[in-house]
């Protein structure tokens, strides 16, 4: 069994695709037939070993994908429902999620108890789990448990429990009326961006960044809600999503596979990126788009256009300094080891958010540095150096999207919040039924 982009292999002794809560409880309770550790997974897009269950049991939740209720301000669905499917159904009812993440294959169970990334819209959070108001799960004792906003401390912990306190089978999310969204792009040199950053972060717009260390450029995708009426521009997001989903990673794969001369290879990559910056700035702007159209449906099984990524977040006040250092880090790494990402880097601005215990913006508003690549052995080696750079510079990782972090780096980032999670985890799972080796190293280091 492997994750979506194929870089992680798991060797469970049992794989189960339940269609009911009773089947989940049966798996949890039958230790002889379904060995420990038990890990629940959705579409397996995580880039870390958070869902690996070597010699244990994997519960594949994707058969439990029904939408159960759509109200005026909430939606309730089973844990295996895909984010994009629920988002499209919400739009039919004149509603939308607060956070419209790019990864449409995200399952609601994973979204409710794990980390996600998206630029915060004005006066809103940027993490999906922050809007989970009710979570139902099967505990490690095989019992049914419901957590609601009436239990704020427990809900805060479960929102970042990564399935360590129970198998999530049903989730309720807060939703809002559908609004049109304006989008525009602007490109800066690194010097220009550093000067502009204090002002642009004060504007009532979200910020997604396209970072190009070898072109010394930063492009910003600004988004805000707009009261404009009319038919939304569907072509804008369709083009952007096709470029991000297929065109860019396809080019990255081809030039890496078939062009061994690095100068020529990266000349092509840089030329393509320059072209895309021009397209973004000139054509990808409109006052009337649908936020739901940002969400991308990836193929169920990855193909040659697949890509992978990582993420660390930094306090907004220090971001300009860290970004400049990161650009130099990328160039220095290429000079020494001959490797650079064959796709661009991205970044997001995320509001301060204490809704989940392991929120990466728990203490302050943050902005991220996210390299993207088609993967490979050189990418894996790059991540080790990248993680050390980010940790040394005060970064905060995600346990499902920041590969190869060490227990020491995790402890430096989250401090005693890890101890709090471990205290709750051992209370609910004293026999380590759901604890795999990945989280054992992090939480018990």
What does this structure look like?
This protein is 34% helix and 22% strand. The protein is of the alpha+beta class and 445 residues long. A hairpin with a 4-residue loop joins β11 and β12. The radius of gyration is 21 Å and the shape is globular. The relative contact order is 0.15.
User: Count the helices. How many?
Assistant: 12
What string, H for helix and E for strand, traces the elements in order?
EHEEEEHEHEEHEEHEEHHEEEHEEHEHHH
> Main sheet, how many strands, which sense, barrel?
9 strands, antiparallel
Helix content: 25-40%
List unreliable stretches of 5+ residues: none
Number-wise, the strands total 18
Rg computed from alpha carbons, rounded to a whole number of angstroms: 21 Å
Q: Which whole number gives the mean pLDDT?
A: 96
Shape type: globular
- N-to-C span: 27 Å
- Protein structure class: alpha+beta
The fraction of residues assigned to DSSP E strands is 15-25%
Task: Give me a quick take on this structure.
The protein is an alpha+beta fold and 445 residues long. It is built from twelve helices and 18 strands.
């Amino acid at each position: 069994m492997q994750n979506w982009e194929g870089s992680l292999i798991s060797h469970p002794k049992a794989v189960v695709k339940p269609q009911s809560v009773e089947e989940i409880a049966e798996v949890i309770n039958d230790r002889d037939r379904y060995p420990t550790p038990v890990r629940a997974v959705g579409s397996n897009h995580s880039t870390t070993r958070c869902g690996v269950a070597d010699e244990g049991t994997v519960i594949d939740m994707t058969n439990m994908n029904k939408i159960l209720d759509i109200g005026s301000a909430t939606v309730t669905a089973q844990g295996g429902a895909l984010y994009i499917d629920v988002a499209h159904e919400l739009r039919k009812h004149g509603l939308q999620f607060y956070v419209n993440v790019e990864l449409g294959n995200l399952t609601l169970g994973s979204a409710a108890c794990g980390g996600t990334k998206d630029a915060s819209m004005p006066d809103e959070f940027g993490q999906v789990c922050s809007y989970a108001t009710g979570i139902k799960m099967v505990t490690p004792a095989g019992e049914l448990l419901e957590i609601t906003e009436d239990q704020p401390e427990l809900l805060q912990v479960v929102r970042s429990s990564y399935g360590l306190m129970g198998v999530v089978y049903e989730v309720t999310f807060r939703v809002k009326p559908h609004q049109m969204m304006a989008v525009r792009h602007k490109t800066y040199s690194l010097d220009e961006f550093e000067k502009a950053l204090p002002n642009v972060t004060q504007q009532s717009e979200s910020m997604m960044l396209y970072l190009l260390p070898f072109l010394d450029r930063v492009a910003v995708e600004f988004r805000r809600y707009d009261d404009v009426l009319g038919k939304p521009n569907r072509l804008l997001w369709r083009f952007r999503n096709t470029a991000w989903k297929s065109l860019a990673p396809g080019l990255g794969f081809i030039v890496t596979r078939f062009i061994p001369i690095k100068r020529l290879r990266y000349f092509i990559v840089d030329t393509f990126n320059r072209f895309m910056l021009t397209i973004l700035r000139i054509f990808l702007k409109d006052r009337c788009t649908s936020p739901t159209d940002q969400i991308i449906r990836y193929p169920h099984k990855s193909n040659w256009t697949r890509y992978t990524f990582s993420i660390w977040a930094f306090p907004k006040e220090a971001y300009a300094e860290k970004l400049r250092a990161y650009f130099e880090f990328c160039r220095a790494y290429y000079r020494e080891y001959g490797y650079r990402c064959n796709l661009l880097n991205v970044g997001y601005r995320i509001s301060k958010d204490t809704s989940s215990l392991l929120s990466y913006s728990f203490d302050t508003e943050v902005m991220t540095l996210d390299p993207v690549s088609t993967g490979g052995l050189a990418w894996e080696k790059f991540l080790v150096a990248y993680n050390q750079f980010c940790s040394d510079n005060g970064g905060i990782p995600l346990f499902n999207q920041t590969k190869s972090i060490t227990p020491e780096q995790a402890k430096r980032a989250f401090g005693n919040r890890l101890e709090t999670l471990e205290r709750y985890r051992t209370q609910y799972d004293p026999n380590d039924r759901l604890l795999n080796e990945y989280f054992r190293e992090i939480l018990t280091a």
